[in-house]
Amino acid sequence: MPAAFSDLTPALSDLSLRKRLVLVHASPLVDADSLLTSLLETTSGFITPTFTPATLLPLEYHPAHSKADVSSLAQVFTPSTPADEAFGAFPELVRGHSKAKRSIHPVFSFSGIHADAVIHSQTLSNVYAPIASLTEEDGVILLVGMDQRVNFSIHYGEKLAGRMQFIRWARTEHGVVECPHFPGDPEGFNAIGLTLKPFTRQAEANGLIIQAIPVNDLLRSVVNKIHEDAYSLLCARPDCERCEAVRWG
Predict the structure, then answer these.
(1) CB–CB of 190/172 below 8 Å?
(2) What is the dihedral of CA 16, 111, 138, 25, to 10 degrees?
(3) CA neighbor of 127 nearest in space, from 64, 73, 181, 163
(4) What is the mean pLDDT of residues 68-77?
(5) Is the pTM here over 0.85, yes or no?
(6) Where are the domains of the chain?
(7) Strand partners for 25
């Protein structure tokens, strides 16, 4: 059951967001309505992931080598496709808002309010464009009851550091499309926590920790960490194909 928040505004105000643009990763335990109301009061605009992994074709799929019926392998992405239920109620509440805009990436779309330029910057070939736009606006990553494993911006830091990216394929209403610069596995991302601590502001509401991390500090930290250790932030599972590909690729 979602935690009952009467008002998240005091906690968000304590984070000194100062009407900045924010990328929100919210726990499914958060009361979506309270979070939405508080963000509208304390930020100049915000975006949140409305990811749709069910549109991805299997890892081994490639249109040049497969004759499989893709209709049985993945869902079709359209602008009205709901965000994955695992993200909880908040992404869908934002996506359905009368003032919200949504980007068109079939797997990693974002929805947001008062952040149209950030939303519209994303393309199939530039999945990380919203993060890049946030850097230009001195934006903030907000983790609401979540840890670094959901922090999609770390993937952009990996790309900036030169780490291997992948190619996957997804279904859209216009057919199967290539999704380049597909990110790696995030299970090792909590290793960046201590590095981020000096510039992370933190508040608490009803037992959930809220962290505010400036996106430029985050990206700089990720790039430096990978340049110091090429294997940092990778998970330790020997069966993780993406991390193993990075190690041996």
Answers:
(1) no
(2) 50
(3) 181
(4) 92
(5) yes
(6) 9-248
(7) 143
